Each structure stands twice: as C-alpha cells, then as structure tokens.
Structure of ACT domain-containing protein:
Amino acid sequence: MASFLALRSRPALRAAWGIRSLSSTQIRRSAEDEHIPKPPPPIDDSTSALDYKTHVRTRPPPLPAMDLPRSRTAEEAVTNILYNTPPPSLQPFKKHVLNCLVQNEPGVLSRVSGILAGRGFNIDSLVVCRTEIRDLSRMSIVLRGQDGVVEQARRQLEDLVPVWAVLDYTNTHCIERELLLAKVSILGPEYLEQQFTGGPTHEPRRHGEGTVSAESIKQELENKLAQNFERGAHPEDAPAPPPLTASEVNHMKSNNLQAISTLAQQFGAKIVDVSEHSVIVEMCGKTKRVNAFLTLLNPFGLLESARTGLMVMPRTPLRYPDDADRAAEAGGVVDASLLPPG
C-alpha cells in the first residue's frame, strides 16, 4: 500500500518541481528584461487633443455681431429667396493672424487648409514647425476676411480631432517677424535680362559668344525691321556700343555692391553670399519692412527672392511696482488738514 501511494505521488512531485523551476526561470528573465534599454514611449495619437478639449471645454463667447444692411421690401425679399443670395455683410475685410496648436502627425496640414479653402479663404502665409514638445506643432496662418466669418472658421478648426487650440492674435500685442532671402545682381538692371538666360550661375551672355545659326540671324533681322517700320525709323540699325573693359566691369560691380551693402545696413540686413555676378541678402523684420526693402532692391536687379511667412508670439505684459503705489494714493482718504483754507 505504501509503495502504491509513493508511485501515485511521484507525478505530482514532478509537476510541482517543474512549476517551481519554470517560475524561477521566468523571474530570472523578467529581472534581466528590466536592465534592457527600452524604446521611448509611442507618440500620442489625435485623441489626446480630443480628450483635452472634452475636459477643459468651456462655454464659448458669442459670435461678434454682424452689421446687416437696411430692412428690405417684400419685392427684394422675394427676389432674394428666388436667387438664394444671402444679404451682404458690411464688415470690412482685414488681416487676421491665427495660431494653431496641433498634434504632430501626418495629414493635419491638409485638413486645416481644406477647411479654410472650403470657406473661400486665401492663405497669405502659413508657417508650420515643431515646438519644444515632441508631440506638438504650431501653425501661424495669415489670412484676410471679416471678423464673424473668421471666427466661425476658427471654431470649425478647433473642432478637428488633432487640433488642441486655435488662438486669434489679431488684436493682441505680438512680436511679428518674417525672414527674407533675396538674390540681387551687382551688374545693374541693364544686364538683368541676360542674367535670367544664364542659368543657375546668372552669368550674362557675352559679346560674340557661341555660334548663331543663319535662321536665328534672319529672325532677328526680321524683328528689327518690323520694329523700325512701326516706329517710322530707317531700317539701318544704330551701331552697337563697344563692350566694357575688365576694369570698367570691376568698378561697376564695386559701386553696386557698396550701394547694396549700405541699403542692407539701414534695414538691419546682412550679405550672406557673394558670387561673381550677384549677392544674397538676408533680412528679418516685419512684413511692411520686408516689402519696403524689396521695393528698394528692385532698381538694382532682383533675380530671386524667398520669404518664410509671418511668425508671431504674444508679448508678456510688465507690471511695475510704482503702479500699485499710485493706485493706492489715488484711492486713499484725503486729510482735511492738508487742504488749503476755504
């Protein structure tokens, strides 16, 4: 009987020993896994912005009042119903700056621009970049429209799932900056058309350079004859001016480069690249200042220009300690003994 019980207990002991050994192996493996470096946590999806807006949702302020035209007659009302034309608003079109905080994921830019395009807005400038937070991006959008229509578009943008918040900085004191890169010719505006045909190097076509076919020469002569006939002049062409010497070209380049450098210093810009026939100027400032700088560069011969768009950041108000003292003095009790008699 004892031998029979011993035989029956052997499988149970083996199973218990296997469980113990398996559990110790798992414990050893879990302890080793703790020391293995793990990848960073995955980027949160778009629902994070949705959860944030759900918990901090407050009642939005009412829409701005729309200025409506005068009351219409019955004939005008029937005509409006037939043609389905809404009454025009009398609010002026002005510049608006929207700042969007969105989730850093693919497809957000297309959804934001699609909503604005669907409402008929033309985006003047759009700047998108990552912020100091990995999962957050900032959009600075500049457009023109009426206050009520822009506010409706802002709320529609804020209802998107990957959008955290949309702020309107139109009436806020902000720092506005825009970056400009402009390539300007140092040969002068006389050689601007020839530099455009020079390719990436913007090298002008030299006198007598290259082989010209007889067909192109014939075409040029026919064009000159047609121009002279229209002007009523003689078909004989005036003699071409002689080509410039090397010293004259260097003197002309030096004068134009000095003038461009002086103009750049007045606007706080700087020359970042100098080549044989052109220079690249970099400038950072407000939009109006950038437009003025481009206007003054046009007479020199503007070859290319690139602008980043408007970037904004609200200013932080300062509180001076004297303000509280002045407010206390203004609201304090006046001593009657200090007043003049009478």
Remarks:
- Confidence is low (pLDDT under 50) at residues 207-212.
